[in-house]
Amino acid sequence: MRLRSILLRTILLVTLALAGAHFKGAAAFAQEAQTQAAVPAPVDTPFDQAAKEIDKAKVQLTALQDGVKQNADNDDALVGLATKADELSRAVITISVNLRPRFDQIKNRLAEIGDPPKDGQPPEAEIVTQERNTLAAERAQINAVTGDAENLSIAVTKLVNQIIEMRRQLFADTLFKRTEVSASVIDDAAGAFVHEVSEFSQALSSWAVFVWKFKRFPMFAAIFLSLASALILLSGSYRLFGAYLRRDEAVEEPSYIGRLSIAFWSTLIRTLALSVLLVTSFFFLNGFNVLRPDIAPVIGALFGTIGLVYFVGRFVNAIFAPREPRWRLVRLSNLGARSIGYCLLAMAVVNGLDYLFGTVSEAMGSPLVLTVIRSLFAALIIGMILITVSFGKPMLARNGDPDAPGRHWPRGMAIILRVVGASLIIAALTGYVGLARFVATQLIITGAVVATMYVGLLSGKAISRQESFGDTFFARFLTRRFNLGPVAIDQAGLLVGLAIYAVALIVGVPLILLLWGFHVQDLQIIVYRLFTEVRLGGISISLLGICTGILLFAGVYLLTRWLQRWLDGNVMARSHVDLGVRNSVKTGIGYLGVGIAAIIGVSAAGIDLSSFALVASALSVGIGFGLQNIVSNFVSGLILLVERPFKVGDHVVSGTAEGIVKRISVRATEIETFRKQSIIVPNSELINGLVGNWTHRNKIGRSEIPVSVSYNADPQQVMDILLELTAKIPLVMRNPEPHVEFLRFGPYSLDFELRFFLADMGDGMTVRNNLRIEILRRFKAEGIEIPLPQSDLTIHRDAPPVLANAVKERTDGRDDPKNKPIEEEERPVRQLRGRTADGSLKS
Question: Where are the alpha helices (DSSP H) in 176-246?
Fold first, then answer.
């Protein structure tokens, strides 16, 4: 018992000691943590961050250089390394760009402080000297980091160029690599082929059993999703382009535009739909882990072969139309169209199978000799097909009957086909199998893509031709849906043609680049550089920034137009603001909005506004020489908008121009005459010249009607009649009241002038016209004569013989029945007579 108690005491003491030590250590740790928390952690400056990023970039560059050395013969790996090098280059450039604002601040501050005082000058304050030294040291550090960044950027660019050169050399070596072709090589290839078929059969059967037992649901789900994606694309395409995806059997003579459109869209849309089905199927099957690593590339090659053969088949059916000659785009006979179509399809099948079997060989690890012999046979078959086709008679007969026997190829075309076919055979037999296979592939796939692009471009050109788009199905739909006129439909045709150009190029060019050895990463880099950095000498242009600037400019401009309409139609219209004030406010807001939109757009495009300083200085010199009139008109326009000596709607007279002011801009003013002619008058002429404004303060104006009566009329009666008729016109003002002025005793009439005032000068023409009609009617009723102009002519007795004989002949021959009636003959004689002062005729 005593021993047990001693042991228990010992254990208790040890436990207490350990617990005390633990709590003491915990307290010390907590106190140390509080002490560390009290001291603020150092914050990295932008310079420190840049230096760390430079060091990190150097490490990445070293890793990339090592990767290039290790993968000098792997094109796919080099593509990935080139992409990483391009990203590293942009990151290094970003480091220098981020330091530029601080460098500019230091530079400006040092310029403000100035240079240190020279000998003999009073000393400066110590704080100024310290600030200058600090800023100079920081500037030196930034220069050092910027220099490292520039050196690193040069090294990265050199590495990118090295990768490009290595890929180019690797491509050339692959094409021109020569392989020995002999009977022993063919025997080895035959044995390898038998072994490959056996291994692939076992691998395919084991994979199929595994999928059916364990991956059945994911496989069906992947197939369902891929089919749904393809059906969505196909149904949408049929909804939008249904009229261009199938040929109308009822059309006897389809138009050229219709044939082109159906050929292009049926090939493009249906091929894209199948491509979506194949790509999504492979993506979902691979994503759901249905494909094994050894089966996945074979399935991908199978899908690629199916897509290639289908595309060539659609192309043949669209261009050659073997069974529908009226839809054919080339002048071939029916037999020639079918034979050429079958040959092209056969070459596509040969190329596709060669690619598929080559992928199987790579997956099964078959020897290279099997791939070489397989490509050899493919090149030989395609070469023989080309030579065979060159001896055919596919061209349309001279009588135009597609069922008649055709004619031979044009001589040049037949020679080209034979030369290309013989070259493929010779290259393959001499061991350049890679070159022969590449040329054969490009003949089929690239030729089909280029031909489809060409058909698309021709279709766009035909649709955008003037007055051609209106006959299409899409144009008729737009006319019914949006009630567009012929001009709008014609403009829409131009836009549709440009859209077809864009579709043909956007789809075709990347496909051609991929076929000629480019990778998807290469295209991504090209597109990124195209939209973010295009260098023209020392100028860097960003197409993406320019597009953003254009969109922002358009947005601000549309907002300005909306604000103009809202202010004019709601605020100023409800306030009954004068029309001229409304026009001035609208114009001012418009120019202000355009200026703001231009500044925002230029800034968003990445263009430094300070770079316009040189342009502004050049313009200031140009203003002094050749732009005086432009600036004068601009300033005069601003004065007209602010001072408003006349406004929109005023009746003005300026020089030889008289009419209604329709528009006042900062350069010129538009005046519409009463004959509906628009006269553009520079604003400087309106400011410096005399301008008459009939409606400056109001529209009240005086109107006059001159009236002449014979000397037999009573002047007072005439004046009473004019005033009486004027009083019946409601538009004539009563204050000031109308009055008649007896102006003068004319040479053959008494001249009066009726004067009255109108509340609106615009009614003057109508009122004067109606008054003249009433005056003439009343004068006829009252017997008041309006005399005709008369002239006195005195004929002396000693008139010239010619004139006397003429008078005598006309007076003596009046009774002659052969002469014209006396009424017609007296008119010239009467014109020779005159009147005396009392009105009698002079002889």
Answer: 183-214, 216-241
